[in-house]
Specification:
Elements lengths: L6 H5 L14 H14 L6 E4 L3 H10 L6 E4 L15 H8 L14 H15 L7 E4 L2 H12 L30
Parallel strand pairs: 1-2, 1-3
Helix pairs in contact: 2-3, 5-6
């Protein structure tokens, strides 16, 4: 599940620093409440979020109906763009020449980020939960979609769009992740 709409979404700014004041807007809170109602009967055993507060805030709203443990996993963090607090358009312009490999301002490339998310999915293979909720970011969930739905080349990842508080259900088959 992607987090609810934030003030940085409204401003079209990048954020990968958990210390920045990025929070759900009233619309984001309503999106999370709507998702919470839709997911209220799913028997989650725990919720795992990225270290960025907007995912925790979303998870806490959804967790109203579940009262399960909420844990943070660093591999779910949004891409470290090197453009924290700066325009998303400027970030896209900076990586345009090689969007899969380019690292800007000490950030990570899209393929670096993909490897980190695949490491998380591999970690999930060793967990015993039957049903859990992962709350993360659009860039992170693109990797989930490509992994679980297949037939998506790396250069197509940017073509996948996930709305705020959009969620998808996948079944993990407990096999090693090929990287």
């Amino acid at each position: 599940m992607r987090h609810g709409r934030t003030n940085y979404n409204d401003l079209s700014l990048c954020n990968d620093d958990p210390q920045q004041p990025v929070y759900l807007t009233p619309k984001g809170i309503e999106q999370a409440n709507s998702a919470a109602r839709a997911l209220r009967h799913v028997p989650f055993e725990r919720i795992i979020t990225s270290p960025l507060p907007r995912t925790r805030q979303t998870a806490e709203i959804v967790n109203y109906h579940h009262s399960v443990a909420i844990e943070t996993h660093p591999d779910l963090a949004d891409i470290r763009s090197g453009f924290d607090g700066k325009s998303v358009a400027d970030y896209f312009a900076a990586i345009a020449g090689d969007p899969l490999h380019k690292r800007i301002n000490g950030g990570e490339s899209l393929l670096d980020h993909k490897q980190r998310v695949l490491r998380f999915i591999d970690w999930l293979n060793n967990q015993n939960d039957k049903t859990l909720l992962v709350v993360a970011h659009e860039e992170t969930l693109r990797v989930f979609i490509a992994y679980f739905e297949g037939n998506i080349a790396d250069h197509q990842l940017r073509d996948i769009h996930i709305g705020n508080c959009e969620f998808r259900q996948y079944t993990l088959t407990r096999q090693p992740v090929s990287t």
